[in-house]
Amino acid sequence: MYVSWEEFGWERLGHGAGRRRLPVWDATVALVAGQDGALLYDTGSTLREGVELRTQAEALLGRRVTHIALSHPHFDHVLGTAAFSGAAVHGAVGTADLLARGAEELRADAMRHGMSAADATAATDALVAPRHQVSGESTLDLGGGLQVLLANVGPGHSGHDLAVLVPGSPVVVLCGDLVEESGEPQAGPDAVPSHWPAALDRLLELGGEDALYVPGHGAVVDAAFVRAQRDRLAARFGVS
């Protein structure tokens, strides 16, 4: 039986690609499917969300997710990863070490934002760190001629920001929290404000003027939005 992306609350972005805005923290996850492989960009904030996303992806594609790409190591984007047993997990270089030693900090941060102790503990106890770390750029061949680009464009929003470029018409750029539409970009203690505008310049260089830019929180935006946010961040942090 055919299952549509819309039935599960997903927004189609192009051939073989879609995204979903998750409840509570409005974090975006994206799914990119080639003929042979499937990439999920971020995994939700709890094991429960991860299992739901895995179930939906398998229903939509008729097969398993083969690759995970983590946009950055914040709780609302990474704590569902353990639900994807067997998937190759990718992150910006340094993400693995940070997650390996920072489970308790992630747990505390999740609870500060309102997650129950039970959910936070279950997810951080099962925390999965990337085994494939991206320094610069890396290409994943998902089959059928679909090659996606993983680009370590940070630091910026965090010390380890990984974007994904999906070719096509239009090009889709998965930005993580380097771009936010539903509110002002959040600069926590691990943000690197002096490099953030340059990270957005790199996103614009990758995607170009006609791309769809998918923020970590909020609606899909265009290049003009990313450029305007870049200029506001530069003014906010005194960066040229």
Tally of separate helices: 7
Q: Spans with pLDDT under 50 lasting ≥5 residues? A: none
The SSE order reads: EEEEHEHEHHHEEEEEHEH
Strand elements, count: 12
Question: Strand pairing plus helix content: what structural class?
Answer: alpha/beta
Question: Based on CA inertia axes, which overall geometry fits?
Answer: globular
Largest sheet, described in full?
Answer: 7 strands, mixed
| Mean pLDDT metric | 96
Radius of gyration: 16 Å
**Main β-sheet, spatial strand arrangement:** 1-2-3-4-5-6-7
Give the helix proportion (percent range): 25-40%
Task: Explain this structure.
- This protein is an alpha/beta fold and 240 residues long.
- 30% of the residues lie in helices and 27% in strands.
- The chain has 7 helices and 12 strands.
- The chain has helices at 47-61, 75-78, 95-101, 103-112, 117-125, 196-207, 223-237; strands at 11-14, 17-21, 28-33, 38-41, 67-69, 88-92, 132-134, 137-143, 146-152, 162-166, 172-180, 212-217.
- The strands form 2 sheets. The protein has a 7-stranded mixed β-sheet, with no helix packed on it. A 5-stranded mixed β-sheet has the order 8-9-10-11-12, with helices on one face.
- A hairpin with a 5-residue loop joins strand 10 and strand 11 (172-180).
- Helix 4 runs antiparallel to helix 5.
- It is globular and about 50 Å long.
- 49% of the residues are buried.
- The model has no long low-confidence stretch (mean pLDDT 96).
